[in-house]
Amino acid sequence: MPVIEGRSWLEIVSPPECDRLLREQRVGRIALVVGAHAEIFPLNYAVSDRGDVVFRTDPGTKLDMLKDPITIGFEIDGVDADNRSGWSVLVVGEARRVREPDELARLKELPLEPWAAGEKANYVRLRPGKVTGRRIHHGTRTS
Amino acid sequence: MPVIEGRSWLEIVSPPECDRLLREQRVGRIALVVGAHAEIFPLNYAVSDRGDVVFRTDPGTKLDMLKDPITIGFEIDGVDADNRSGWSVLVVGEARRVREPDELARLKELPLEPWAAGEKANYVRLRPGKVTGRRIHHGTRTS
Q: How far is the C-alpha of B116 from the C-alpha of B44, rounded, in Å?
């Protein structure tokens, strides 16, 4: 396994493995820049046949209010605190609200149920530009 | 329970409950602004006796390279995908690397073991400025 910056306990997760993890998981988190810092919001998502990360938003929420396409970060992870190990995948790419009827119809076929009451009528798709994954595993402490 | 923006399935998590969750969990995620977007990195953390979120970093990593105190977002969550419910707590505040020997000695008493080999010699503390929590629960779909 390739390692990161010479740190043997930190492995790179390969692109096919990142893709598999993205299709397997159902919950991720987006980071939205607010002024000079960023805030993190969990949400459920699905991956489209074109490999986009797709999620639904309610009118009036932060992400929905973005009129133009923007670059955002999206993360999934799986952490085992007891075994002090875990992995994470970070997707950076352009997110935009989908308005084209054809594309919208396709996205509505995805297994993307909102978790609670409320329309969540708007679909946002994030086209992955950069996808990186890392896995940490419990090694021997040197200090 | 107070609700958010009239959405009855989205409850506000009270400040004492946010505090309890922060002290109970061990893994969170920070959002770092990179250019015009933000990226998310999971890490393990502890809460100090002063209520700061404390974590360790390796020299050369993104966060360690920040020389001056900066405002960052930090998030924890607990999601039950099968039951389509979950909660999240977002902390926004000033993060800075701790260099003062007295404070460093105090932080080294925290249960903040690195998960793997490597020194992670640097301590960063995030002083919570704004702490917000929300809980979503599975309601009846209206659409």
A: 11
The answer to whether A8 contacts B86, with C-beta atoms less than 8 Å apart, is no
CA distance B123 to B107: 8
Predicted-complex ipTM score: 0.87
CA distance A7 to A94: 31
Nearest CA in chain A to B75: A40
Q: By CA distance, what is A44's nearest residue in B?
A: B81
Dihedral angle, C-alpha A109, A120, B83, A92, nearest 10 °: 80
Q: What is the pLDDT of residue A142?
A: 43
CB contact under 8 A, A39 and B31: yes
Give CA separation, A100 vs A103, A123, B36, in Å: 5, 11, 26
For residue A59, what are the CA distances in angstroms to A66, A120, B51, B71? 11, 7, 35, 28
A85: helix, strand or coil: strand
CA distances from A143 to A8, A28, B16 (A): 15, 33, 36
* Residue in B10, B63, B72, B115 to test binding to A, most A beta-carbons within 10 Å: B115
Structure tokens belonging to residue B3: 């609700």
Task: Give the global pTM.
Answer: 0.88
Q: Tell the residue number behind the tokens 């707590």, with chain if given.
A: B89
pLDDT per residue over B12-23, tens digit each? 999 999 999 999
Residue A115, min C-alpha distance to chain B (Å):
5
Q: Tell me, what's the pLDDT at A4?
A: 62
Closest CA–CA distance from residue B115 to any residue of chain A (Å): 5
Contacts of B55 in chain A (CB under 8 A): none
Which structure tokens are listed for B42?
A: 């999971």
